């Protein structure tokens, strides 16, 4: 099937395209959407490329100390930007996505907006089951047969890190601008709280009140070029050597990244050395967030074990007790 490709050169031009063609579908690096189109999973009659819209680029510090990252920033640029060394976990995550070729093309906006994945869904037509599953409008799930809805995993590497920094997503559409915590983008069953004509303009990381340390770890089958089986983003803010804010997010554990809120009070006021001594409690709390089903590559027990390993490595790194 053929499709049209338009290029928008400004946001104003983009809103006009959306007004004229409500079926227009935005495309950034294309590394998430194009494979699904090629596999015949999705079809869009009109793609509109965002890459010439200058308003979507740039990494800038705002007057209040927030860091604003344009949605079209390439993962490779973020990974290699020396000015971002304070955002260590972000650079770790950006440098682990897929392969160098994909990181050269992939954007941070596309990363946080990528589709949830599942081995029964991300297949070409000839390999897919005859009867469609929930995600394709059917009435069943092949991955977790008892589930009443889709449980495909959200496997973004970057979203858990941004959530651990409490990042805010800035949206713009023909009806105006809105800002929401990135975490609110992710809904049940892999759905996203975003209008079809809304564009992610930037991600804003609030100012840091103290010394920030962060780490991102992921478990994969292959050493590189692989989606995470499970991942952990951990960010501590410290004042006078004590943790004032501990944020842990577990990624690839279910349909959306999960905050582990119970860890906050556990680590509040501790020194990093004291935090490491609480390793077992931290691991137990964090791995409760891992959805208890086989994800088609590894079983539920293995997913928990891998989760413990990811959490352990993240805690050691963030507390400066691990060679990175
Ligand atoms: C082989 C392979 C391996 C991969 N491995 C990983 C991995 O290890 N980790 C990982 O996280 N990802 C991985 N990915 C997924 C993907 O490459 C990345 O998530 C990438 O960052 C997506 O960015 P993109 O710019 O290419 O997105 P696109 O494909 O252009 O877009 C993705 C989605 O976001 C929407 N979108 C993009 N930008 C905007 C915007 N500014 N406003 C509104 N909507 C927008 C698009 O409409 C589309 O729905 C892999 C992909 C492939 C093909
Ligand atoms: S998790 Fe279930 S419903 Fe979702 S894509 Fe996979 S098989 Fe389909």
Automatic annotation (TrEMBL):
Q: Which InterPro entries match?
A: CO_DH_flav_C (IPR005107), CO_DH_flav_C_dom_sf (IPR036683), Diverse_Substr_Oxidored (IPR051312), FAD-bd_PCMH (IPR016166), FAD-bd_PCMH-like_sf (IPR036318), FAD-bd_PCMH_sub1 (IPR016167), FAD-bd_PCMH_sub2 (IPR016169), Mopterin_DH_FAD-bd (IPR002346)
In what residue span(s) does the FAD-binding PCMH-type domain sit?
1-210
Per UniProt, the keywords (alphabetical) are: Flavoprotein, Oxidoreductase
Q: Which residues lie in coiled coils?
A: none
Work out whether the entry's keyword set contains Magnesium: no
Kindly indicate whether the keyword DNA repair belongs to this entry: no
The GO terms this record gives for MF are:
FAD binding; oxidoreductase activity
For this entry, the protein name equals FAD-binding PCMH-type domain-containing protein
Q: Which organism is it from?
A: Formimonas warabiya
């Amino acid at each position: 099937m053929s499709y049209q490709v338009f290029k928008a050169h400004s946001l104003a031009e983009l809103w006009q395209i959306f007004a004229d063609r409500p079926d227009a579908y935005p495309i950034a690096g294309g590394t998430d959407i194009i494979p699904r189109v090629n596999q015949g999973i999705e079809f869009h009659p009109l793609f509109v490329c965002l890459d010439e819209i200058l308003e979507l680029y740039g990494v800038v510090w705002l007057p209040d100390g927030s860091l604003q990252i344009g949605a079209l920033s390439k993962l490779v640029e973020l990974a290699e930007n020396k000015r971002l060394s304070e955002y260590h976990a972000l650079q770790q995550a950006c440098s682990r996505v897929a392969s160098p070729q994909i990181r050269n093309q992939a954007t941070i906006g596309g990363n946080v907006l990528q589709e949830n994945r599942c081995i029964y869904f991300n297949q070409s037509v000839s390999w897919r089951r005859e009867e469609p599953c929930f995600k394709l409008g059917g009435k069943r799930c092949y991955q977790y047969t008892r589930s009443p809805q889709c449980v495909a995993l959200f496997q973004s590497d970057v979203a858990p890190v941004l959530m651990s920094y409490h990042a805010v997503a800035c949206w713009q559409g023909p009806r105006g601008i809105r800002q929401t915590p990135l975490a609110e983008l992710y809904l049940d069953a892999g759905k996203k709280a975003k209008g079809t004509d809304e564009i992610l303009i930037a991600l804003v990381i609030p100012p840091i009140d103290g010394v920030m340390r962060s780490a991102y770890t992921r478990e994969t089958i292959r050493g590189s070029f692989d989606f995470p089986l499970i991942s952990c983003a951990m960010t501590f803010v410290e004042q006078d050597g004590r943790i004032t804010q501990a944020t842990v997010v577990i990624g690839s554990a279910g349909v959306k990244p999960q905050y582990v809120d119970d860890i906050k009070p556990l680590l509040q006021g501790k020194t990093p050395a004291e935090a490491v001594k609480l390793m077992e409690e931290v691991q137990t709390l964090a791995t409760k967030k891992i959805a208890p089903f086989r994800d088609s590559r590894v079983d539920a027990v293995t997913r928990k074990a891998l989760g413990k390993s990811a959490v352990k490595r993240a805690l050691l790194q963030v507390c400066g007790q691990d060679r990175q």
